[in-house]
From TrEMBL, chain A:
Reversibly protonated during proton transport (site feature) positions: 61
Protein name stated in the entry: ATP synthase subunit c
Transmembrane regions listed in the UniProt entry: 12-33, 53-77
Pfam families associated with the record: ATP-synt_C (PF00137)
Cited function: Key component of the F(0) channel; it plays a direct role in translocation across the membrane. A homomeric c-ring of between 10-14 subunits forms the central stalk rotor element with the F(1) delta and epsilon subunits.
Gene: atpE
Amino acid sequence: MEGDIAQLGQFIGAGLAAIGSGAAAIGVGHVAGNFLAGALRNPSAAAGQTATLFIGIAFAEALGIFSFLVALLLMFAV
Amino acid sequence: MGKLFFYVALALVVVSGVLFAPEHAALAIHPMDQFNVASLTGGAVSTFAITNVTLWLALAVICVFLLMVVGSSRRAIVPGRAQSIAELTYGFIYKMVEDVAGKDGVKFFPYIMTLFMFILMANFLGLIPMSFTTTSHIAVTAILAGLVFFTVTIVGFVKNGVGFLGLFWVSSAPLALRPILAIIELISYFVRPVSHSIRLAGNVMAGHAVLKVFAGFAGALGLFSFLPIFAITAVYALEVLVAFIQAYVFTILTCVYLKDALHPSH
């Protein structure tokens, strides 16, 4: 698509897609915060669970990455 | 007193920005220009042209070789610096594969170690000022993630035969829900390489773009154009952390997918 209105739509859409990054931030913070809460209750078990922590963070982050991808596609590919 | 000083400094920044700003100051550096692929030999980018991407990919391989092969070639009983780093990395990844993928996943340790070292070196080389960040290109990360996806799928079918499809059939769920869950599991399985590759490329690209955005502010600040260097230093420190964590996350997810392929039952 061409024209000012189409470009306006692209930019608004990319901005809206950026909300998803904030949502992913909430998710990642939730994972890390709960891990810390559990780790402080039982510090001896925490070291063995850091791999699980990173897997959880990665999965929570994946959907935020998708919204970032949508923003990129709108800005550069559409 | 402190407040007054702050407001005077802020006014000076704004005034000097207006007075001394070059024309088109806001676009002095475009944050995405650093990701342009250019041929090093001149001419257009074609399939066999040597570009900055191939140069920095080759440098990453050379760095891995220098660290792991040359650095530890002396096999000293009391290791030096390079040998210590090589041995620590080896032990770190070996333990990760053993913990996450299980004992029979250790067979795939060379592949996973290669992935980790390559991504780590590519990320770190990209942090050198004026260098090129190869892992910021989805073309590079998609190949890495696609290789992992096909490897894992083939290994799953070779090891378990049709039993590998049990990965999609959640036997702990009620029978009525299982077909729906199978569709969801199938979709999530095929989305894996997408999220796997874009996570790495997106994180690295976003971080480097932020650095260039702060650098671009310098043109608009006039006399106070040295101020963004503080922000850049802070973001750069974060980027060093991100470079390691993303390599780690890519590797650990490979291990998780491998575990799914070796033990597909839920």
